[in-house]
Amino acid sequence: MIRPANDEDLPALTALGRRMHDESPRWSRLSFDAARAHATLAMLLDNEDGLLLVAEHEGAIAGGIAAMCAPHWSSRDRVAFDLGLFLAPEARGGMDAVRLVRAYREWARGRGAVHITLGISTGVHAEQTGHLYERMGFTCCGQNYEVANVR
Q1: Cβ(130)–Cβ(29) under 8 Å?
Q2: Measured between alpha carbons, how far is 146 from 14 in angstroms, rounded to an integer?
Q3: Which of 8, 3, 15, 90 is nearest to 53 (CA)?
Q4: What's the number of domains the chain is made of?
Q5: Which of 11, 13, 31, 113 lies 20 to 30 A from 51 at CA?
Q6: Residue 85 lies in a domain
Q7: Secondary structure class of 44 (helix, strand, coil)
């Protein structure tokens, strides 16, 4: 079942955020701050332009999506963008990702978004995830480059 998150879900979502962080070859190079992650997720619950959905099975949270919708920095047109979509490894392979993306798209349309984006920044199953997004009507529109550990 896909449903809106609530305050009681924040500890489980923060724990899933840690799992996403630790699984990612890219993001695991950063420190993980559970308090900051929790605060970011809580901000989405309290923000009319924030979205936080969970995929739940038998009372347990298996994944979720965090997103925002706001005017583009150079336009009054609203754009939607995800902060993260994650399913625990043991919950992958079913329909949860599709259901989360569909719910995100509907929410973004309802918020007046003229562009809806999804990223794949973790480096985990990027090609497979990209194919799923394309089957759902998204188009690859760019690439990211980084210089890591620049201290």
Answers
A1: no
A2: 25
A3: 3
A4: 1
A5: 31
A6: yes
A7: helix
Give the residue numbers spanning the domain of 74: 2-135
Q: What is the pLDDT tens value at each position of the chain, 151 positions in all?
A: 999 999 999 999 999 999 999 998 888 889 999 999 999 999 999 999 999 999 999 899 999 999 999 999 999 999 999 999 999 989 988 999 999 999 999 999 999 999 999 998 887 888 898 899 999 999 999 888 888 776 6
pTM of the predicted model as reported, rounded to 2 decimal places: 0.92
CATH number, domain of 9, equals: 3.40.630.30
Residue 150 lies in a domain: no
129 assigned to some structural domain = yes
d(CA 115, CA 94): 27
Token digits of residue 84: 């993260």
Assign residue 123 a region (left: φ > 0; alpha: ψ between -120 and 50; beta: otherwise). Answer: left
CA 123 to mean position of chain CA atoms: 14
In a domain, 143, yes or no: no
In angstroms, the Cα distances linking 39 to 7, 35, 44, 69, 105 are 11, 6, 9, 18, 24
Q: How far apart are CA 72 and CA 56, in angstroms?
A: 32
